[in-house]
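Tokens for chain A. Residues wanted.
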């Protein structure tokens, strides 16, 4: 069966179903995996297996350093698998045959959704596939923070501490599960999640971000980067945290008001900021807050073989299912 084209009201690339069918008959579909930060080899092998079993061709562009390399590689791709790689109007302009882009991961703020729609390209993510990996890293960063970054001095334990989960999605739920194993007292705030879902997971719901920060010794961020959340983690909000508070970010750097947080860390020498997403002002944070600030050199949350396999293979399967059956279940540019 031919792939089902995605028809926007005014697509720039209207194709008839008949033309699509003809295309699939004479043309071997090409799936490009473009990852500046590569998947584990075992995950690439799994993706290849799915793609080639469907009769498609796999192309790989890994560790590219120049956007032009992506523009060149995408020019004859029918489908694209990415991670945090930027897919903007320039990439979509270059991708003349592209029908679908799948972000192998949760956050799709790296895809220009409007441009995808106007180019007639379906955009998807693979929700939940890498969430355990990110959650495990969040807990690892918490231990690292409360043990004073393993500098030999006496730290504290997570057991009995109040943990605030800011957004109770796939990652937040895994953080709650693991934190309970540490004996933490877990709270969560999520304007879009009913209390019942938190209570069912033995998590205490709170009803504002302010209440979460005021209550919790450690706050773990799991909010997406949207117009609503950008710069929302600011001086006044984090200042509500009790003495010795730790803010852990495995979400996005854009949600932090960096200048506000820098001002606060200068005023409150008891606070720590630990992040898996290096801030724009990393050098300033490093110079000013030695021992209270840490950033991974590259986002590591989803960088496990298991997460790469889960998200990469899910992405490949979603592409095949879209091309063969028109399944748009995980489409994010509807
Ligand atoms: C996600 O949104 O899935 C995570 O931030 C992981 O991103 P990565 O695939 O770029 O590591």
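Reply:
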């Amino acid at each position: 069966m031919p792939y089902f084209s995605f028809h926007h009201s005014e697509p720039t690339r209207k194709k008839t179903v008949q033309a699509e069918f003809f295309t699939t008959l004479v043309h071997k579909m090409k799936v490009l995996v473009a990852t500046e930060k590569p998947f584990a080899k075992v995950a690439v092998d799994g993706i290849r297996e799915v793609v080639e079993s469907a009769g498609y061709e796999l192309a790989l562009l890994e560790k590219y350093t120049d956007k032009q390399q992506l523009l060149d590689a995408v020019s004859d791709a029918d489908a694209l698998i990415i991670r945090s790689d930027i897919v903007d109007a320039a990439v979509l302009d270059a991708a003349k045959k592209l029908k679908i882009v799948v972000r192998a991961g949760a956050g799709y703020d790296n895809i220009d959704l409007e441009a995808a729609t106007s180019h007639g390209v379906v955009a998807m993510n693979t929700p939940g596939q890498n969430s355990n990996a990110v959650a495990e890293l969040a807990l690892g960063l918490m231990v690292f923070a409360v043990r004073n970054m393993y500098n030999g001095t006496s730290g504290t334990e997570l057991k009995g501490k109040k943990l605030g989960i800011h957004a109770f999605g796939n990652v937040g739920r895994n953080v709650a599960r693991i934190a309970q194993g540490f004996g933490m007292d877990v709270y969560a705030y999520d304007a879009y999640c009913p209390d019942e879902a938190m209570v069912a997971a033995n998590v205490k719901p709170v009803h504002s971000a302010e209440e979460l920060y005021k209550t919790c010794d450690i706050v773990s961020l799991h909010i997406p980067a949207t117009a609503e959340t950008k710069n929302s983690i600011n001086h006044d909000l984090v200042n509500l945290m009790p003495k010795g508070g730790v803010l852990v970010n495995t979400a996005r750097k854009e949600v932090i008001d960096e200048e506000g947080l820098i001002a606060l860390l200068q005023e409150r020498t008891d606070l720590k900021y630990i992040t898996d997403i290096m801030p724009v002002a990393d050098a300033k944070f490093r110079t000013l807050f030695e021992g209270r600030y840490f950033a991974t050199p590259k986002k590591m949350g989803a960088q496990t073989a298991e997460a790469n396999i889960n998200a990469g293979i899910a992405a490949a399967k979603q592409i095949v299912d879209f091309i063969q059956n028109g399944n748009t279940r995980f489409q994010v540019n509807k």
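The chain has 13 helices and twelve strands. The two ends are 23 Å apart (CA to CA).
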